[in-house]
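Record 1 of the preview.
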Amino acid sequence: MKKILAFAMAAVLMLGLAACGGSGASAPASSAAGSASASSGASGQDSAGGTSVVEEIQEKGVLTMMTATGFPPFEYLGEDGKPAGVDIDLAQLVADELGVELEVLDMDFNLLIESLKSGKGQLIAAGMTATPERAEQIDFSITYTLNGLILLVPKGSDIKTADDLAGKNIAVQESTTAHIYAQEELGIEPLAFKNANECATAVMGGKADAAILDKVPAQTLAMANPDALETVEQLLTEEEMAMGVAKGKKARRFRKYLALIGRRESISVASMAQAMGLSVRKVCDDLQDMLDEGVIPTGYLDVGGGRLVLNDEGLREEPPAPAPEKQAEKPPAGMEREDAVLMEIREVNDAIADEVMSRKIDRIGEITGKIFAYLREKPDKEGQLRSFLGYYLPTTLKILRAYAQMEAQGIEGENIKSAKARIEGMMDKVVDGFEKQLDKLFQDDAMDIRTDVEVLERMLEKDGLGEQGMTMGGT
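->
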């Protein structure tokens, strides 16, 4: 599982690196524009035809990653005194895919973003939470782990919740989400340290009554010091970790195009050029790139008419009011949102004759039903599904509706044939993405079980009851 995740991250980060600097870098996974920024790295060159960051890295032969050690298991100093950990392993995968050496710069966490912006390295891999504030300065990869803040306290401490922190000395890692949480949510001015290791040392030495840390590092430190430390497992926050790359010009330009297009079914290229301050030819080139790279999933450029068309029914500036006879049936009274979505998936599938497409849509419906069932059992997890519910699911349905509409025309003109082929070609990726979303929901559960098993093993061995040991698969 670890290798699969590593290779997936390598592929996505390579796209981000190709996009940054002269083109576009990947945005947070929760952003609808993320697909635009990730895809925009295909050429890896800016509008002036400059060299891409990937080409510069390959020419130099080195990918420079920046991190902040002291945050195990993501980054720490190994026995040889060099940075090691999950993030370093993932960055090495990226370097291997590029065919270059990996250079790791270790620095204070609060220097990472400015160092990336100033060009000291091309990649941040430091257990960083992808916050909206940070996303204004840099672009992020896909989320590679779900995380959250918990308390690390002395063994046998009376501190059981955040409410017990009033009047206490609290340790945090400087410039992290824990630092912000202590100040803004708890109204506490904490003791700020360079890394999680120093926070744990402060707690063990009595300098701090507790530390607010990310869940996995806190658990790792507690297991490394079982006689001195323990964790309070109640999550204070839920967060998404990602890697950072520099923002790119092409990504920002693509996002502006998407904002201009909005919900229109067609739009004048000249009007877009005027709004963007670019030539008509440049806008046409960009729009064709967006179509070719799947940033705009359906549509075509009507060069003669000077318009971008996203609906084969006609050229209209605004989406038409739906005809009464074509309005979707309202779900029965009391039907939940999930049931209405599943009904729509079935209706779209019934309208599509292609058997291969139909089987894949069946799978999408099956996975979506399981995701909704999980959400009904654990409604507090809805925050983890923001991107899925707000973008991926409705966009997939929109594309499938367009496919059914084109299939119903009964003709195979060049434009319809090309658009249908594009949709058919992306379906395996969509199904795979939905399956990964379902699997991702159980990541915390699996991590909690693994941690419980490891602690149980340690206790059995400590009490002389673990001669044969207990093991759990996974790495």
